[in-house]
Amino acid sequence: MIQVQVFDEEHEEDLMDDINQFLNAHPSIQLFDIKFATAVASDADGQIFCFSAMIIYRDKSSMTVPY
């Protein structure tokens, strides 16, 4: 089954760390794609940044082997 994992951070380094931790914690996944997006908004306190990514993957450990 194909699955997704979504990450959202205010700093690009935090997003990168989250994704790397996820990939290291799940060595049995087969990675299909990573979708990346950024957004910025302005308020009275300044700019707010949003860095997000969606990982599309399949867990190879849950796949059955055909006979």
Structural class: alpha+beta
CATH topology: Dodecin subunit-like
Strand order, biggest sheet?
A: 1-3-2
pLDDT averaged residue by residue:
92
DSSP, total strands: 3
Binned, the helix content reads 10-25%
Q: Ends: how far apart?
A: 19 Å
Largest beta-sheet details: 3 strands, antiparallel
SS element count, helices: 1
Unreliable stretches (pLDDT < 50, length at least 5) are none
Strand content: over 45%
What would you say the CATH architecture is? Answer: 2-Layer Sandwich
Principal-axes geometry comes out as: elongated
Order of helices and strands: EHEE
How many structural domains are formed by the residues?
Answer: 1
CATH level 1 class label:
Alpha Beta
Work out the radius of gyration: 16 Å
Fold and architecture overview:
The protein is an alpha+beta fold and 67 residues long. The protein has one domain (2-61): Dodecin subunit-like, CATH 3.30.1660. The protein is built from one helix and three strands, in the order E-H-E-E. It has a three-stranded antiparallel sheet, covered by helices on one side. Strand 2 and strand 3 (46-59) form a beta hairpin.
Describe the SSE topology:
Layout (H helix, E strand, L loop, with lengths): L1 E8 L2 H14 L3 E15 L2 E14 L8
Antiparallel strand pairs: 1-3, 2-3
